[in-house]
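Intended use. Records like the one below are meant for learning the mapping from a protein sequence to its folded structure. Do not use them to infer anything beyond what is encoded.
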Amino acid sequence: MRKPKFAATLLILLITAIPLQAQDAGAAPVRSAAPTIDIRQMFVDGGAIGHIIVALSLVMLALIFEHMLTIRRQTLMPQGLADEIQRLVQQGQLKLAEERCIASSSFLGYLLAAGIKELELGYAAVEKAMEDAAAQQAARLMRKIEYLSMISTIAPMLGLMGTVWGMILAFMEFERKANPQVSELAPGIYKALVTTLFGLIVAIPAIAAFGFFRNRIDELVAQTALTAEQVFADFKRSMSLKRRDERRQAQTAEAGIPPVAPVVRREIRG
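Structure written out for the chain above:
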């Protein structure tokens, strides 16, 4: 019983397909043109949310340009500043050295100025002051690039919101029609997806730029801290020698041995 039913069903399908094949054969083949992308039309179809995302892209470009100019070695570590401050510290011109550091308005200048203020308290105080200044300035730089991270998060969320809103409008229009076709729904879906595309176009370079500048800040902060320590290397060495002499004098005093006077060599001329 199953075989006759299957044969009858197959026969009906073949009979139905014959006129369709004849109609397709008689009709001239139509080639659909390749779709073209109109940027202006996409900008219009993006609506208000798309315009906001475009505005965020302009802000992102401005931030990247500003960070390229300010977050670099020459700006954070001016050439020749470390050598100049080291020379002034060795000469005892601490006030002038501090003024030069503040006038430079650089990352290295802030670290050196903080260390110079604590020179009278010893190298440990100098090192602690520079560490605190480095942490403060590094946090300030990180706050600057946080805006790129915010844009990389906000842009795709706005794009998703625009897509959801566009889909709602498309389905509402689809529902109002008595006999809707699938082709009538496509334009609404296309317009809804435009904002998602805009959001991703903005988010991807924003998060890439954020990672790039974050790594650059970490590298420059480490190099600046090392340079600042080298400026006070002679001071650290002199303080170590001074503490060593004080310990020796203290040990000599405890042992009851009078301090040995330095031997002065005199040249004997014949």
